[in-house]
């Protein structure tokens, strides 16, 4: 299950909340509106449960979410979303390939005519200020004001991109999910805002998808493209975090559907991976000591003397009550901890390489049978697991002994 959590007090002109809400309603996907206090670090109240939340709103909201608990429904990594990173990877496919990354302090000390024009923007995708063309004198004055007014988001050491102005004819925003352009919008022509969904050249879309084959900062993001002067070449302007980019004239229905399907698919991958790991605890680095420690801590107060067909003896007066010791919830907590150990050792990516999607259905069916058996008799499952771990331990000892004997012969 998924849910969209969308800021509902964005500018009235954009209507982004209404568009996303309508798209969610058509898909029968939950959508929850939240009001954000401008420039506040406080997060609003919103639902957090088993559903995967997908977030959309102003940059402040998204940044605060990531700093607070870095949810998977925020499609952003500051290391990937930077102009320096794009230039390093895409080179001359970037409009700003010959620009330099510097700081306000360093650039303001350079020797340039006061009336010379420069395009400046943040290196990071943090919207700390809007990219613009200014004369050199204005840049110096602005830099001095940063120190004067103690700006919390900017200072003299803030990394910026600086270049001569570009003669851009048209600009488009492409909304990318898993390497494919789902929808696109023209948003500027001859330096004037012009939101349009009609003028979308196929070759521009192809350019974007070709670049995505080379690299993407995230599976879900936006890429802005420029067509300059009399040239017929396309260039990357920048990439943006999908959670906070403007929607312009894109097809919001298509965008919400594509992102929702992608996140749902990722959820399914995690579920199948978890089920497999939960069924194969004995194949991991889980040891008898780990199992016994978790049993003592979660099921509670036992003398660890498991053996074939035997049950543990309890130490009275510590740990949970006798009723709780036999509760399925206590056992499930223990199995969950063990499964997390396996998941950390056997990554989702490794699992996907070993087991193609066509095998996932059978894994889930096998898991249903396993859980039914474990639910009916968790103690029997536990004793069987301990025996399997002991056999693995004995086998490892034999192999180690054999290796040492061969080594010293």
Question: Could you describe the 3D structure shown?
Answer:
With 409 residues, the protein is α+β, with helices and mostly antiparallel strands. The protein folds into four domains: 2-74; 97-163; 168-242, 2-Layer Sandwich (D-amino Acid Aminotransferase, Chain A, domain 1), CATH 3.30.470.20; 280-407, no CATH class. The chain is 44% helix and 20% strand. The protein has 13 helices and 14 strands. It has helices spanning 16-27, 59-69, 83-90, 104-108, 136-149, 202-214, 252-279, 288-300, 322-325, 328-345, 348-354, 360-376, 378-407; strands at residues 2-7, 30-34, 52-56, 100-103, 117-122, 132-135, 159-163, 168-177, 180-189, 192-196, 220-228, 234-241, 302-303, 313-314. The strands form four sheets. The protein has a five-stranded antiparallel beta sheet. The protein has a four-stranded antiparallel beta sheet with strand order 4-7-5-6. Strand 11 (220-228) and strand 12 (234-241) form a beta hairpin. Helix 7 packs across helix 10, helix 7 packs across helix 12 and helix 12 (360-376) crosses helix 13. The longest helix is centred in the C-terminal third of the chain and has 30 residues, at 378-407. The radius of gyration is 28 Å and the shape is elongated. The relative contact order is 0.09. Mean pLDDT is 87; it is low at 303-310.
């Amino acid at each position: 299950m998924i849910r969209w959590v969308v800021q509902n007090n964005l500018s009235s002109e954009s209507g982004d909340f209404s568009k996303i809400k309508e798209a969610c309603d058509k898909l029968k996907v939950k959508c929850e509106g939240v009001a954000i206090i401008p420039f506040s670090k406080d997060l609003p109240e919103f639902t957090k449960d088993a559903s995967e939340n997908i977030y959309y709103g102003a940059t402040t909201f998204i940044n605060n979410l990531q700093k607070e608990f870095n949810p998977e429904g925020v499609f952003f990594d500051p290391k990937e979303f930077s102009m320096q990173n794009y230039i390093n990877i895409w080179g001359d496919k970037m409009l700003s390939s010959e620009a330099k990354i510097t700081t306000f302090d360093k650039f303001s000390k350079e020797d340039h005519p006061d009336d010379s024009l420069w395009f400046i923007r943040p290196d990071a995708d943090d919207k700390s200020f809007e990219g613009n063309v200014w004369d050199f004198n204005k840049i110096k004055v602005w830099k001095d004001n940063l120190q004067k007014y103690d700006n919390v988001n900017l200072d003299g050491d803030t990394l910026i991109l600086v270049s001569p102005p570009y003669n851009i004819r048209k600009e488009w925003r492409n909304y990318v999910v898993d390497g494919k352009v789902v929808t696109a919008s023209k948003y500027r022509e001859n330096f004037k805002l012009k939101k349009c969904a009609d003028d979308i050249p196929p070759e521009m879309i192809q350019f974007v998808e070709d670049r995505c084959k080379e690299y993407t900062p995230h599976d879900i993001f936006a890429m802005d493209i420029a067509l300059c002067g009399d040239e017929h070449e396309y260039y990357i302007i920048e990439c943006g975090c999908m959670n906070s980019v403007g929607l312009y004239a894109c097809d919001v229905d298509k965008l919400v559907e594509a992102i929702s399907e992608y996140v749902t698919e990722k959820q399914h991958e995690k579920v199948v991976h978890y089920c497999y790991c939960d069924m194969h605890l004995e194949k991991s680095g889980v040891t008898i000591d780990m199992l016994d420690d978790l049993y003592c801590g979660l099921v509670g107060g036992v003398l660890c003397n498991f053996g074939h067909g035997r049950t543990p003896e309890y130490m009275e007066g510590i740990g949970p009550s006798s009723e709780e010791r036999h509760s399925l919830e206590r056992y499930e907590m223990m199995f969950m901890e063990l499964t997390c150990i396996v998941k950390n050792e056997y990554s989702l990516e490794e699992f996907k390489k070993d087991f193609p999607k066509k095998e996932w259905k059978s894994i889930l069916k096998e898991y249903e049978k396993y859980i039914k058996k474990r639910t009916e008799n968790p103690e029997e499952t536990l004793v069987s697991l301990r025996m399997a771990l002991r056999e693995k331990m004995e086998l490892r000892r034999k192999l180690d002994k054999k290796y040492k004997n061969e080594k010293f012969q």
